Structures
1.
Amino acid sequence: MAADGPTILATSGGLRRGRRTQAEFAPLVLYALQLAGVSGRRPRLCHVGTATGDQAHWAAVIDEAARAAGVEISHLNLFPMPNVDDVGGYLLDQDAVWVGGGSVANLLSLWRLHGLDGPLREAWRSGVVLAGVSAGSICWHVGGTTDSFGPQLRPVTDGLGWLPYSNGVHYDSEQQRRPLLQRLIGDGTLPDGYATDDGVGLVYRATEMVEAVTEVRGKGAYWVSRDGQRVVEQRIEPRPLPGAQ
């Protein structure tokens, strides 16, 4: 199965503490699989952990969350070498790809070094849902704000750019995020774009943002744009997903 067209779910959420496991899939991850239109079998989800160095411990946490959710999980690793021979074929066999958070600067560099951007783009065009959190959200856009270089946030401007906007993540929970994104849009370092509070996701069909959704009630999404000499922030009310808290 595949989505009706190129689909990206860019989020600031997706996992939460489990009742009997370290983590469980929250509604945003499950919604990525729903967008893929899977029926009659277990959905296939590829986890990409490049942004935190493909940590084996974290992969085990994801495996446990997937088993609890009835999801067939696999991992695309680049450390110490790519773990599949045919990356393109492997990605096309997935229903959705979930890219974890961490260093978006390192993620982008390694994806390009290993030529992963090409197969990912082909999977996206073929209807495999691309999704992720934080670094796994910013990467699809032109850029955003990042702690990849240190605790003082800095801009990243060399995202894949398939979505022609900037992207702000953790907009309500990390105090540097909101003012820096607005300043970068205001001075032209980044284009106008979308931001998400923790627990919120943005659904893009091709390059159009068509819906904001949330797994945490009361949280928001935002359109941030330059209007002459000022920056305007417009709240977008997200739709609560089933299971939202």
Note: The first helix runs from residue 27 to 35.
2.
Amino acid sequence: MDTLLAFWPALAAGLLVSATHVPLGMQVLARGIVFIDLAVAQIAGLGIVAAAWAGLEPQGTALQSGAFGAALAGALLFAWTERLWPEVQEAVIGVVFAVAASASILLLASSPHGGEHLKDMLAGQILWVRPATLAFPLAVTAAIAGVWFAARGRVGRIGFYLLFACAVTVSVQLVGLYLVFATLIVPALATRRFGKGRLAACYAIAAAGYIAGLLLSTSSDLPPGPLIVCAMVAFGLPVFCMGRRVSA
């Protein structure tokens, strides 16, 4: 308990990410566009890398604007391609992800700390989250969750992509791309056959993964991001298998 109290900002960051990513992940799975989170997160990351490459302050408003602008442009692109070519949407998402990732690597290649920046973008630095950095993500999370639950998912195709882009842009800077993907997909996949109580079960899996991963990280001195991903899968796998047996 003392360990969790010492690292409560990291846990709070994980729970904030879960607040929006759990319901959005259920919708992503239902739409069959599983890798959109990786693509949008990578596009937001490209916006951050490009802004930093241009010499903007790391925590400045201009850099945040670059991240949000890139993610929103990517979201509108995917909304457009889904309308035109729904049968190949997943392939389009994969190609855009590869291009955004390659562009980020090219921009980071000229930076002496490019490898470290790339690692931070992928695995995140959740243990370094501080209380002061949670105010903006809290406001954005509350707004997204309010719109999503008030509309009960009736936000339309473009609305869904725009909300998704805003959520992912904030979360990828808090916890990294791998945790963004895991929080979106693992709980939704594990509970795919649930009916009543599915949302609560998803939140429980996500919270358990963050708590267990942070505890393991502080006791083993291993990086928290990969541990949280593995812990979330460990909690989700029995639920996934149980759902298969029930439906058989």
Note: The chain has a mean pLDDT of 84.
3.
Amino acid sequence: MPVYLKFYFWLLLISGGVLTLERLLPRSRTQELLRPGFVQDLFWMIFNLQYASWMLAIAAVHTVAWFNRAFFHIGLPYPESLKLIAAWPLWLQFVTFFVLKDFLEWNIHRAFHLVPRLWEFHKLHHSAEHLDWAATFRAHWFELVVYKISIYLPLVILGVNETVIFWILVVSLTINELSHANLDFDYGWLRYVINSPRFHAWHHDFEMHGRGGQNFGVSFVLWDWLFRTAHAPQTAKRPAKFGFKDIHVYPKGIWHRLWHPFGPRRRPPR
């Protein structure tokens, strides 16, 4: 397989490129390369890309098997046999699945803010008090499971080409790392469509500006503008502080952060 078709090649290339931009055009010039929490974010990156990916592969197999059995019992075709858009041109598959995938992720992301039990898992991502490319990977493994399983069934039903899926992953990673980066720009008129460092910084604002938060877009932000969850003030380019209101009592260690969501329920921010 050519190196350009390997995900880790693009992970290193994109991360290195965004890191270079951060050093050349930083939003916060006082933020150091090895800022507090940087080493822990590297752990989350390795853990989520290795161990969590293994768990997701197992979960995906069981999920498809369960749906196959369920569809069989009610007399419907297996999800794997439908492949609704498999015959479409690759570019159309790319656009269709990318938009569908992102809309599902927007809804899931918002649910992680609104549902108290889910918010306890999502707190880990919002515990980043400094944003940069590495903060992208700070996430609880359970959150990844929910995202991937929710998206896997549409993927199976649509029958999207594997090459299309690969390039969607690469583009998604690029937008994700840029939107979390220590940078300050948007995309002009496309700021109403594509997530950017300036827009997503407000999602991590210490202060909430809507029910459960604001700016839930992952790759695309048009959902936030359509459903009125966008917050992009013209009076300030960035929040004064990142985090959430009870961050001072949130555990600092990796092990405690892994188990914290399974403890007593707490209310999400309002």
Note: Residues 38-261 form one domain.
